[in-house]
Amino acid sequence: MSEIALLGKKIGMTREFYKTGQLVPVTVLKVEKARVVQVIEEEKRGYKAVQLGYGKIKNSKLTKAMKGVFAKKATEAKKILKEYRVDNVSDFKEGNEIGLEVLKDKNFVDVTSKTIGKGFAGVMKRHNFSGLRATHGVSVSHRSHGSTGQRQDPGKVFKGKKMAGHMGDKFRTIQNLEIIKSDPINNLIYIKGSVPGSKNSIVFVQESKKNIKRKTSKLKSQEVEKDKIEKESKKSPKKESPTKSDAKKTETKKENKK
Questions:
Q1: Residues 6+ positions from 130 with CB-CB distance below 8 Å
Q2: Which of 93, 216, 236, 254 has a Cα at 20 to 30 A from 198?
Q3: What CATH number labels 5-117+167-235?
Q4: What is the pTM of this model?
């Protein structure tokens, strides 16, 4: 199940507190259940895969070809179709729905989404150039990139040269983001770290491909709490029960006072 991804919508940000008082900033994603539209077997296409459908769409917005596809599969029309290679096709059946249970007992995920578009940006914003001098000979080109080419040889600007241009609005994947909490009833997942895109943008969430060995925030807070309890137990010594001689002394003091 780890090969497939879930589709979610970025709702916004909030924060979670642990018992130790530690604050964790999180991004909230509303995850939608994916439906298995087609199971692709190796005998037909030469590889094993699963086609998943996400989101709702009106039939009036479908082409005739796609209407025929969904009618043949006898399933509800889906807005987005994605295909994933899998090792075992027998785990999937057409018409079944897949939700947050895929990420159960998982601590880290990879998140893919489209970044916020910045429009046409200069080199100082886009590539972190330092720009030209603010004074002394620079005339109305303080934020320009400077020279881009060479001489007659090669007589051109090489491809990939860092210049001003369109910034953002590209699909990017952020790996190894930590799952702080998941709410299967409301289909919500709380992720620590930077999730690309603005609010209401579509996000694909997948189990982390890398083998992450670092401790989670929850485990760290539990360790801190455990150390705190141990320190408090060492600081507070056990009160010894008063001996018989001490009791006699207190009695004699009381008699003397009388």
A1: 124
A2: 216
A3: 2.40.30.10
A4: 0.80
CA 225 to chain centre: 26
What is the domain partition of the chain in residue ranges? 5-117+167-235, 118-166
The tens-digit pLDDT sequence of the chain (258 residues) is 457 899 999 999 999 998 888 899 999 999 999 999 999 998 988 999 999 999 999 999 999 999 999 999 888 899 999 999 998 888 899 989 999 998 988 999 999 999 999 999 999 999 999 999 998 888 889 999 998 888 899 999 999 999 999 999 999 999 999 999 999 999 999 999 999 999 999 999 999 999 988 899 889 888 888 888 888 888 766 555 556 566 566 666 666 665
Residue of 229, 216, 236 whose CA lies nearest to 18: 216
Q: Which helix (H) or strand (E) holds 244?
A: helix 244-257
